[in-house]
Amino acid sequence: MKDEEVTTVEARRRKSGKPDASLLPGSEPVGMETGYRILSYIAAGLLFYGGLGWLGDKFLGTSFLLPLGLIIGVVLAMYAIIRRFDQPPETKPKN
């Protein structure tokens, strides 16, 4: 990127009056960042608890632990999402 382009983008940002959220200390994610964070909570829950269920099924010779693990993973992920994002800004826990 050329220096002229950088100064143009920086000048446009200053002119709009909107602060860059990524540069503010302690700022919460906005827009797509929040969506990606929520998606990662769901994916992590599915992968972790689904993986535990799959391992349990494999070693115990059962067939119900994988679906049970997937359901538990989604439920716990939704709990974590609600707990994390459904609070007023002034009472959010600092991570």
Automatic annotation (TrEMBL):
Query: What ranges does the record give for the region Disordered, renumbered to this chain?
Result: 1-29
The UniProt keyword set, sorted, is: Membrane, Transmembrane, Transmembrane helix
Q: Where are the transmembrane segments?
A: 38-56, 62-82
What is the official name of this protein in its record?
F0F1-ATPase subunit Ca2+/Mg2+ transporter
